[in-house]
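Notes from hallway chat w/ T.B., transcribed later so I don't forget. T.B. wanted the structure written out for a chain they're using in a teaching module, and asked if we could keep both sequence and structure tokens in one place. Agreed to drop them here.
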Amino acid sequence: MAMSLRAGLSFFKLEEFESYLESSYFIGRNRRVLGDGVLGRLRRLTHISLMLAPDSDFVFGSDAQVIKAVKTFPGHLRRWIEISQKFTACSFFGLVALWGLGKVTGLLG
């Protein structure tokens, strides 16, 4: 479900997300380099997630023009990105925990 949410956002909302961050060098570069395929769109969405993270020192240090755009990024769109990012992270860690439990109990050979 988490990947379905990310894929849906990358196909139906990615252009809207990117339109608010047009001043960023990385947004334009990612469009050219990563393209419009499924994996390219997912990677572009992940990069936007990293840009909007509160402790994104790398992005602010390498692309100072984006600071104002990140601060004025609309809250309703930011929530979509944050929820999908947290949902994906929780799903990943949940799967790892279930795999570990299966190994410990002997259910996974």
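Follow-up for T.B.: The radius of gyration is 16 Å. Might be a good example for the class.
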